[in-house]
Amino acid sequence: MSGIEAVGATRLFAGGAGVRGVDLRVEEGRIHALVGLNGAGKSTLMRLLLGMLTPQSGTVRLAGLDPRASGTALGALVGHLVEYPLAYGELTGRANLELGARLHGVAGPRIPQTVDAVLDELGLRRYAEVRARRMSLGNRQRLGLASALQHHPRVIVLDEPTNALDPSGVILLREALLRRAAAGAAVLVSSHHLDEVARIADDITVINAGRVIGGLTPGDRELEHAFFELVHADDLAREEVPA
C-alpha cells in the first residue's frame, strides 16, 4: 500500500494509556479524519505512524515503508505536524521554510519557488521576513503547516492542525489539503472538531481509549450525535467488562 497503514499497532505506557490493536488504512487521494476526545490516543497513533514511537506489536507503513527503518528516504515523501510546529525563533518565516524544504529533499534551485508558492498559499507573504519568535501562535502554526506541505508530499499526517488558526487560516488549510488529496496524496488529520473535518474528509475513524471503535459518515447531518453515541456505547461496554 502506498498511503498509510497500521495493522494491530500497539504502544502502551505505564498506567495503561496509549493505543492497542489499531488497524487503519488511509488511501492515496483521500482525506481521512481521526477523531476522538482528548486523551483518546490520536497523537500517540500519529507518532507511531511517523516512527517517533516504536510499536510494541503490530506494524505501520508510510508510502509502503517502515518509518523506523527507512532513514532519510521518507523525508521527501512525508509531511507532518504533530503537537507543536517546528519553527526556529531566530529565523525568519522564509528562512524556516527554506530549511524545511532542504530537509524534505527539495533541490536547491527549486527552493525559492517552492517557498514563495507556499507563502502565498497559506497567507504568510507579509511574515516572510519576520522572525518566528515575533509571530503570533496562529501564524507559527501556519508556518509549521507550510513547512509540512510545501514539498507536496505523498503522505500527510497532521495532528489537530487547526489549533490556534483564525477562520481565514482554517479555510486556507482546508483548500491546501483538498488540492493535495486531488493530486494523489494520502492525508490523515486528527481533530476533535467534527464540523471542520466533516467539510473535507472522505473517511472518518473514531478512536476511544486507545482503540478504533468505528467510523462515521462525513455527510451525516447528525454527525456529532453519532460520534457521542459511539463513544458512550464503547465507554459503557468497557465498564461492563469484568476486571
From TrEMBL:
The keyword Cell membrane does not apply. PROSITE patterns: ABC_TRANSPORTER_1 (PS00211), ABC_TRANSPORTER_2 (PS50893). The keyword Nucleotide-binding applies. GO terms for molecular function: ATP binding. Residues 4-234 form the ABC transporter domain. Belongs to the ABC transporter superfamily. This is ABC transporter ATP-binding protein. It comes from Protaetiibacter mangrovi.
